[in-house]
Specification:
mainly alpha, two-stranded parallel sheet, 2 strands, DUF6339, globular
Length: 260
């Protein structure tokens, strides 16, 4: 069963964000609600989520956050660990399809109406894109559901094992290019396998990944990656990734040479 979640449009979300940035976490907890007078739903695609399920989602997420210091202070490492567990929790419990999860307004509702205390605990006084849903790759909740979606492998003993591989910077780049790469979960998972095997040896991860993905985009009109046997696909991607590492190293070597 696919569920449809309430959506909070940007015009209604922005005033809430401006107010909530000034409130204490305890006060935000008192403002949590399962509905908003301006919320809307998609017309088709599933059943509207019940109040009970929203309450269960909220309670479960708060309990998870409490393991990492919520509502008090927590370390950067603790919040990073919380993100990994939250990605599993959201993806495993929400029963939401990618088309629905691609709506930033869904995530705005969850951050600003259902769970403002957790959202503003995770990112105190955040910039708007962390809660408004204007950029899902930055959203406190949405980015984590999508990270889990990109790595999810139901055939594995731990379907979310690759979450540790896909950091936020890498996720941003892969998510932004997922349609250009065919939107194939098979290819994304193969990219992650290749990425996890790399030895960057001091190389800049962001630069290497950007070059790697650009090379794949140039190859995609000529290579049907999904048609390759798994071993051949992995070998092809590792080869392309190694080319990226060597190209970045060569570029850095040239730029470090003294001029004149």
């Amino acid at each position: 069963m696919n569920l449809l979640y309430p959506r909070l449009l940007t015009e209604q979300a922005k005033p809430l964000h401006e107010l909530y940035r000034t409130l204490a976490i305890r006060d935000l907890g008192g403002r949590s609600a399962t509905s908003h007078e301006s919320a809307i739903y998609a017309a088709t695609g599933g059943d509207r989520v019940s109040v009970r399920r929203l309450e269960e989602l909220r309670d479960g997420l708060r309990q998870l956050a409490a393991q990492f210091g919520f509502p008090g202070e927590s370390s950067r490492d603790a919040r990073g660990d919380f993100d990994l567990q939250l990605a599993r929790y959201l993806h495993g419990t929400m029963k939401i399809i990618p088309a629905e999860a691609a709506s930033g307004d869904v995530w705005a509702f969850l951050a600003l109406v259902l769970l403002p205390d957790v959202a503003y605990w995770r990112y105190p006084q955040p910039p708007g894109d962390r809660v408004l849903g204007t950029d899902i790759t930055r959203h406190v909740l949405g980015r984590l559901w999508w990270r889990a979606q990109l790595v999810y492998s139901p055939e594995d003993a731990d379907p979310y094992r690759a979450l540790d591989v896909l950091g936020e910077a890498a996720f941003d780049q892969i998510y932004a290019r997922r349609k250009a790469l065919g939107g194939s979960p098979l290819l994304v998972k193969a990219i992650l396998r290749a990425w996890s095997d790399l030895e960057l040896d001091g190389g800049k991860e962001r630069d290497v990944l950007r070059d790697f993905l650009q090379r794949l985009l140039r190859l995609s009109p000529f290579v049907v990656f999904e048609a390759l046997p798994p071993e051949a696909l992995d070998n092809e991607l590792r080869s392309v990734a190694q080319e990226s590492i060597e190209a970045i190293r060569a570029s850095r070597a040239v730029s470090s040479k003294p001029s004149g």
